[in-house]
Amino acid sequence: MSDTSPTILWLRRDLRLADHPALLAAVKRSGPVIPVFIRDHSVDSLGAAPKWRLGLSLAQLAKRLDDMSSQLIFRSGEAMAVLEQLISETGATAVHWSRLYDPDAIARDTLIKGALKQRGVEAESFAGHVLFEPWTVETKTGGFYRVYSPMWRAVRDRTVPEPQAAPSKLPAPETWPETETLDQWAMGAAMKRGAPVCLPHQRVGEEAARDRLDWFMANSIPPYKDDRNMPALDATSGMSENLTYGEISPRQCWHAGQRALDEGGGRGAEHWLKELVWREFAYHLVYHTPEILAGNWKSDWDAFPWNEDEDHPEVAAWKQGRTGEPFVDAAMREMYVTGKMHNRARMIVASYLTKHLMTHWKIGMRWFEDCLTDWDIAANAMGWQWTAGSGPDAAPYFRIFNPETQAEKFDPDGVYRRRWIAEGHENPTKTALSYFDAVPKSWNLSASALYPERIVDLSGGRNRALQAYEARTF
Ligand SMILES: Cc1cc2nc3c(=O)[nH]c(=O)nc-3n(C[C@H](O)[C@H](O)[C@H](O)COP(=O)(O)OP(=O)(O)OC[C@H]3O[C@@H](n4cnc5c(N)ncnc54)[C@H](O)[C@@H]3O)c2cc1C
C-alpha cells in the first residue's frame, strides 16, 4: 500500500544517490522525500580533516539534490530531538537510514528506532555501508572470523546483489522545512590554514568517485598486485576517501572488481577484491568486538610499557614529519598535505611509532583520526592494532619494519621521499614545499632549515623494543 505522507531520509555515511537502498525504499513509498543531515555529537567529535572533508561531501550532495529540485536539510542537535521536531513540522510518517556498525551509532540508532516506532512512525534501517553485514558471515562453529584469510575464503564466492541505479526523481514536499547552512556549521574551522593546500588532493562526491573507479579499472588492475606497494605510483584506487562517506557503495566497487576479473583482470582484480574484504573484516571486528576502538584487542598487551605521553618530543617529531627517518617523514607529510597516506607508508609509520618509539598505538590512531580525509573508524583501529601487534590476526610485535630497507625496496629511486621532503634539496618539489604552507605557524618549520638528525637510531630503537617485548610479563 502506498502512503503519500513524507519520508525523512536521514543521511549519515551514505552521501550518494546510486545504490542506496534506504533512498530507493523512500521513493517507493510515493510521498515526498525529505533528505536530512544532522550535525550531532558524532559529527562534532570528528577530527579536523575528516570533518572538513565531510563538509565538502555534504556541499556536493546538496548541489546534486538541488539540481533535481530536491534539497538537503541541515539541522544540528541531538538526533532523536531533531528527528522528532522534523516529524512534527512535516507530518512525516517514516524515517529511513543506512545502518552503521560502531557501538555509538548502534546505541543511538537502536534508541531512536524504538522511540519512533512507539510513536507510530515507520523507522526502517537498510544495508549499504558494507558488502556483508556482520551477522551474515559466520565460522563453522557459529562465531565471527578473528582471522582474515578464512573470512575471505568464506565470502569470495558469495553472490552480491547488483548495485541499483539512482532514482531519476525525488518527490519534493510542497514546502520545505527550514534548514541551517553549511557556512554556519564551519566544518573546516579546525583545519586552520591547511585546507587550501589539502583541497586539490580531494576527490569529492559520487561522480568523481565513479569516474576514478572507472579509470582505475581501465588502467590499473593488471599490475595492481605488485604496484600497490609502491607509494610513488598512482597504483591504488583511492576509493577509501569515497567509501568512508558513502559517496560510492562497496557493492559498486565489488561489481567493478568482479567485472575486471571476468574480463581477465587476473591476480590484480582478485587482489583488489581481497582488499575490499579487509574493509569488511574491520567492520565485522568493530561490530563483534567494539572494544577494538578503545583498548588492546588482546588484553595481555595492557601490561606493555608503552610511552603514553602524547606531548613527548619524539611523538611531536613523528607527527611533524621530523624524525630524521626519510620514509617516515615523507609519509607523515603526505598525510598532512593530502589527507591520505599510502597503505605501505601507513604500516611503516605505525610500526615506527609503536616499535622504534615504543609509543602507544592509541596516540597514532588519534593523530590519524585528526589528519586523514579517508578516516574510517573501523579500518583505522584495525590498522593500528594490526601493526602494533595487539590486534586480531596481527603482525607479531617482533616483526619490526626497518624504514630504511623498506624504502630501498618500495621507493628504490627515492621518488616518494623527494616528493615530500624539501630540506637538503637544491630544487625541492612543489609537493614538498606545500607541506610548509599547510603546517601551523606554531610548528615553526622552514623548508630551508637543515633536515633533522635521526631522533632514534634504528638498531637501538629496534633492540629497545625487542627487549621490552621479551621482558614482558604477559
Ligand atoms: C595504521 C593504519 C591506519 C589505517 N587507517 C585507515 C583509515 O582511517 N581509513 C581507511 O579507509 N583505511 C585505513 N587503512 C587501510 C588502508 O591503508 C587504506 O584503506 C588504503 O590505503 C586506501 O587506499 P586505496 O583506497 O587507494 O586502497 P586500494 O588499494 O585501492 O584498496 C581498495 C579498498 O580496499 C579497502 N582496504 C584496502 N586496504 C585495507 C586495509 N588494510 N584495511 C581496511 N580496508 C582496506 C579500502 O576501502 C580501499 O579503498 C589503514 C591502514 C593502516 C596500516
Task: Describe it.
The chain has helices at 21-28, 41-44, 48-67, 79-90, 103-118, 148-155, 182-185, 195-198, 206-219, 224-227, 240-245, 250-288, 313-319, 326-338, 343-356, 361-371, 377-388, 403-410, 415-420, 430-438, 458-470, and strands at residues 7-11, 33-39, 73-76, 94-98, 122-126. It has 474 residues and is mostly helical. It has 3 domains: 1-128, Rossmann fold (3-Layer(aba) Sandwich), CATH 3.40.50.620; 130-160 and 203-288, Alpha Horseshoe (Serine Threonine Protein Phosphatase 5, Tetratricopeptide repeat), CATH 1.25.40; 299-470, DNA Cyclobutane Dipyrimidine Photolyase, subunit A, domain 3, CATH 1.10.579. The radius of gyration is 23 Å and the shape is globular. The mean pLDDT is 96. Flavin-adenine dinucleotide binds at residues 228, 236-240, 243-244, 275-276, 278-279, 282, 343, 346-347, 350, 368, 372, 374-376, 379-380, 383-384, 387.
Question: What is shown here, in short?
Answer:
With 474 residues, the chain is mainly α. Helix content is 49%, strand content 5%.
Distance between the termini: 61 Å
Could you state the order of secondary-structure elements as H and E? EHEHHEHEHEHHHHHHHHHHHHHHHH
| CATH-derived topology of the largest domain | DNA Cyclobutane Dipyrimidine Photolyase, subunit A, domain 3
Give the oligomeric state: single chain
Characteristics of this structure?
binds flavin-adenine dinucleotide, about 475 residues, 3 domains, mainly alpha, 5 strands, DNA Cyclobutane Dipyrimidine Photolyase, subunit A, domain 3, Rossmann fold, Serine Threonine Protein Phosphatase 5, Tetratricopeptide repeat
